[in-house]
Design a protein that fits this description.
Length: 260
């Protein structure tokens, strides 16, 4: 079985760190052209673009805030100008927000998480689908989370946004399928990235985390990148409108392994 993404035009939002960076490298390794969207740390985004290009993959670094409709349109217009459009969109950019019980949360900050995670995913998906529908091909892969199904005290905006992404993806998949376009989600569990360094570098917190993962290890960004590449390729051509969980079994509720 061969995965061939030669010259496919890929945009990875939040592509200059963590899971997004691993996904960008994964597509470049499979000969795709990769545009790295970023908002902060431009030096790292440019360094990555040079790195990917050095390995033979055409690459762009595109600054833009996915919570801004104007920025999103500019990103996609640049792709039109540089590469003539887009074949694969990876909606990865997102934030988890600050801990606050639902009735104590500041609505301004709650809204900000929704605006980035859910509405940002919609803005980018809308722009990509306009182009994909015309060419009658394409894949939109949205990065959700195990928290599209697992509640998380103190992070109601995050969980609401991820559950929303799941249903948004299903609805868009239904609408786009007649045009040969697929839309689906990947849902990471606990992954070793800088955003949760405080957990996996703390022995006590790390041991507690492992009790939530039946496979007994934290995930690596490459675990997510591998599945993203597969799902965006023709190997997965009959998969749309669903979520693939990449979580070591976290959504299998391991606390019930000893009985209810």
């Amino acid at each position: 079985m061969e995965i061939d993404l030669s010259n496919k035009r890929v945009l990875v939002t939040g592509g200059n760190s963590g899971i997004g960076a691993a996904i960008a490298r994964g597509f470049a390794a499979n000969r795709a052209r990769v545009a790295i969207n970023y908002l902060v740390d431009p030096d790292e985004a440019r360094r990555m673009a040079v790195e990917l290009s050095a390995h033979g993959a055409a690459s762009l670094a595109l600054k833009g805030d996915i919570s801004s409709s104007e920025d999103v349109e500019r990103i996609f217009s640049t792709l039109d100008d540089k590469w003539g459009g887009i074949d694969i969109l990876i909606n990865n950019a997102g934030v988890d927000g600050s801990y606050a019980l639902g009735w104590e949360a500041d609505v301004v900050y709650w809204d900000a998480v929704i605006d980035i995670n859910l509405k940002g995913t919609y803005r980018c998906s809308r722009a990509a689908l306009k182009r994909m529908i015309k060419q009658r091909s394409g894949v939109v892969l949205n990065v959700s989370s195990v928290h599209e199904t697992i509640a998380w005290t103190g992070y109601s905006a995050y969980t609401a946004s991820k559950a929303g992404i799941s249903m948004l993806s299903k609805s868009l998949a239904q609408e786009a399928a007649p045009f040969g376009v697929r839309v689906l989600c990947i849902a990471p569990g606990a992954i070793r990235t800088p955003i949760n360094r405080s957990v996996w570098q703390d022995e006590t917190k790390y041991e507690d985390l492992l009790t939530k993962i039946p496979l007994g290890r934290i995930g690596e960004p490459q675990d997510i990148a591998n599945m993203a590449v597969i799902l965006a390729s023709d190997v997965a051509a009959y998969i749309t409108g669903t979520t693939i969980f990449i979580d070591g079994g976290m959504t299998d509720y391991p606390s019930f392994s000893h009985g209810g």
